[in-house]
């Protein structure tokens, strides 16, 4: 989280880090990370509830490192049978992983269904 917040403008402060740390201890906040020569060079974190994952923030300090972490996370979610991954942003990269924008009403139906499932993490 701190690496995601390492920029001029950010909503990620120590209060948020503390809240997400507590959420992680409850089994709901997770990250996927890319490391190179012992240094954290990219990552993404978010929240898992039932069969839904909500990506919160991503960073990269080395070419494509954040994308590598995102790709790894997508594989994990697919393997575990997640039904919904809210990546917040649709771009060329997320489209290559199957991301599509859906109408809000359709999102709500998918969300209710995913939240009824047992924890998939």
Walk me through the structure.
- With 121 residues, the chain is of the alpha+beta class.
- It has a single domain (14-115), classed as Aminopeptidase.
- Helix content is 36%, strand content 26%.
- It is built from four helices and four strands, in the order H-E-E-E-H-E-H-H.
- The protein has helices spanning 14-25, 65-79, 92-96, 104-115, and strands spanning 29-36, 39-49, 52-60, 84-86.
- It has a four-stranded mixed β-sheet.
- It starts with 13 loop residues before the first helix and ends in a 6-residue tail after the last helix.
Assess the beta-strand content as a share of residues. 25-35%
Q: Give helix and strand order, one letter per element, not per position.
A: HEEEHEHH
Fraction in helix:
25-40%
CATH-level-2 architecture: 3-Layer(aba) Sandwich
What is the makeup of the main sheet? 4 strands, mixed
Strands of the biggest beta sheet: in what spatial order? 1-2-3-4
Radius of gyration: 15 Å
Helical/strand content category: alpha+beta
Kindly identify the CATH topology.
Aminopeptidase
Please provide the count of β strands. 4
Integer count of domains: 1
Q: Helix tally?
A: 4
């Amino acid at each position: 989280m701190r690496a995601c917040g390492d920029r001029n403008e950010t909503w990620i402060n120590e209060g948020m880090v503390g809240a997400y740390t507590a959420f992680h201890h409850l089994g709901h906040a997770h990250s996927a990370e890319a490391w190179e020569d012992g240094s954290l060079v990219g990552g993404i974190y978010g929240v898992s509830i039932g069969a839904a994952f909500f990506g919160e923030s991503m960073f990269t300090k080395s070419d494509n490192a954040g994308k590598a972490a995102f790709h790894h996370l997508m594989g994990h979610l697919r393997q575990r049978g997640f039904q919904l991954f809210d990546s917040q942003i649709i771009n060329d990269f997320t489209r290559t992983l199957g991301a599509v924008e859906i109408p809000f009403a359709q999102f709500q139906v998918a969300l209710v269904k995913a939240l009824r499932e047992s924890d998939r993490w």
